[in-house]
Amino acid sequence: MKVAVDEDRCRGHGVCWTLCPEVFDLTDDGYAEVLVPEIPAEHENAVRTAVGSCPERAIVLS
């Protein structure tokens, strides 16, 4: 499974980073970025939670 952040939608709430800092980080401007686009199996549930919790629906799984 892969994950990406839609930079046009992200507003820097930081929910994804709070839920899964192993996969997400925040830029110096406070917007989300993906550290590891190919999600390790042990973090899949946390990433799915982050996807469902993103207020802007900016996280995309493929």
From TrEMBL:
Species for this entry: Streptomyces sp. SID12501
InterPro entries: 3Fe4S_ferredoxin, 4Fe4S_Fe-S-bd, Fe-S_cluster_ET
Protein name from the UniProt record: Ferredoxin
PROSITE patterns: 4FE4S_FER_2
Gene Ontology molecular functions: 3 iron, 4 sulfur cluster binding; electron transfer activity; iron ion binding
Cofactors demanded by this protein: [3Fe-4S] cluster
Pfam family, one: Fer4_15
Superkingdom of source: Bacteria
Keywords: 3Fe-4S, Electron transport, Iron, Iron-sulfur, Metal-binding, Transport
